Amino acid sequence: MSVHDLTEVHLGRQQIALLTMIGTQQTQDPDGQWPMWDWVEHRAKSYGMEDPRGVLKSLPRIGASGSVGLSYGFTMSVPQILREDTRIKLTVAAAWALNEPRYFLGEPFLRVLHHMIELWRSAPRLPNKVTEVSLTSEDLKRALPQMDSRMIRMVPDAFFNEPFMAGSYGKAADGSWSMDVPREVMLYEQATDMRGYVSETCRQVHRVLQEANRAFTGGEPAPVTSLDKVLHLSASRRALLVWLWHQKQQQGPGDPMPNVKGVLSDDSLSVDQGVRFTEAEIDRASAHLEQNGLIKGAGAIDQMAGPVFAEITPQGEDCVENYNGDTSAYIRRKDSGPVTFHITNNSGNIAANSTGFTQNAVTQGGFDPAQILAAASLVQQLAPALTPDADEQQGLLAQVSDLEEAARSSEPEPGVVRRIAGGLMSTIRGLAHSPDVQRLALEAVEQGIQSL
Q1: How far is Cα 106 from Cα 94, in angstroms, rounded to an integer?
Q2: pLDDT tens-digit map of 277-309
Q3: pTM higher than 0.70 for the full model?
């Protein structure tokens, strides 16, 4: 679910429980490792959570709605296909929202961030050299002697999980490290607390995406034809359900059911992707919600698909409070019907809708080519914004084509894909026409090859 600012989000009980469970496990791990999805799903179900996957994917994010592209949420971007060994990592946004992660992740992160800001403020500037700032674990121990040594070991990973904080770093076997301090820490000079940091990160994500959009459209607003109709449909359903939830909180006993068209008067809910919902879209949303038991209507009127007057049901309240109004995730949580797989070129064993089994599988690729193809498509679109030089664009697009060809192979080789992607990233780093668009392109490729 996409939102504007993560600090304004009200997390549901199950979302809080899932994030807290992940954060608590990370604090207990001797090496500070984030838990794998296999453990997270099993533990959540043992606590009575019916659909941990649905809860995880219902967590709000800002920015790109898919697994490729710049975005920010309470966890790092989760791939569309969750593998058992995928590590579920919390961000500082989760530390702001929850009590325990606030202590072990958020507060130490903020102290280190402001130390980095001081390093940049005091860094000498030379007329013939670009300023660079680095930090080592030993330097940080001397600067912040009260900080726990375990926290210090985790610093590079914690910063790498944040959109604008990722710099190159190296770790030694003894846990010591050295890292480049990104110039972007200066964006947070006024962020004196975690809420300020998270809000500023959300603002910067929006800014970068808006700049990329202006580069695509030549400075003009994106045309209405760019509307993602699937997301718009889903957003209309959520908007109406959340609006009816708020109406119920304000209603007294015996009050009449509200008119569903009232949601169109709420500017905070009635606009998606810059486009206001129509009465017809709200009517269809009303019909969908009633069909799935999330709202109860007073009867339909001629030529209307759904009820005009309606109220939220207990199931609808559960969807809003525990799934942030993500109706698709809520409905899928109970989907235990038959599943049909169409599988080609499989060399492992497949089990579906089964319990009490051990599955041993060897997959050919071990990664999702769709993510890599999505990243390649985004870089292809960004090419004019990355460089105005026609020759440079041609060379970049040739590398993108090579990456697409490798990912589309009938038996894609991860090593080949990673090598081509590495070369593409090196080329992007050399195109400094628009640093923010450059960062967006690099982020897309990094996420695309994350599972290799």
Answers
A1: 8
A2: 888 889 889 989 998 899 998 766 656 788 888
A3: no
